[in-house]
Amino acid sequence: MTEKAAGSAARAVLQQCLHARLQVKPADEQSEAQWVQIDRGMVIYICFFKGATEDILPKMVSSLLNLRLCESDSGRLVSVSELPGSLLVVPQATLGGRAKGRAMQYHGNVGKEEGLRLYGGFVELCEKELLAAAAVAGGDAEAGGGAGVAVRCGTYGNRQVLQLDTNGPYTHLMEF
After folding, report:
1. Residue 1: predicted pLDDT
2. Residues with Cβ < 8 Å from 102, sequence gap 6 or more?
3. Where on the phi/psi map is residue 52: left (φ > 0), alpha (ψ -120 to 50), or beta?
4. Which residues pair with 17 in a beta bridge?
């Protein structure tokens, strides 16, 4: 990423996956590393820019969850909501980086506290929408989502380890 698009409030990168596992807390002397994981679905890397507000979140969630990027069993492209599939949301401040000389700068990114608030709202809306879609498709959203549907998220502001199995480098960039 060289610089944010003029007027953009957020940037997301989408990747379909067969399985994804994200370390949300590294091991220390008292405990083992903690991980979240999903099976078939989509990974969303998200970054918010200065000026982003909660007003953009519903549009982002609707757009991202309804894009037909996941391959169904028949080979047809469907949305993660239609699959139904799971979602892993990864905060990725580096998506807002801008090259200056041989270093990257992140002056266009939203502040950490505001970013955390926006990220939390984004994850909450994703969970609400995806579990509602799974319930309509025949699952039980109250029991944790239909057909194994799950929404998992990374820890905002921390470096995290990601393991990803995909059936092709089918990666997309979206600006909002």
Report:
1. 45
2. none
3. beta
4. 41
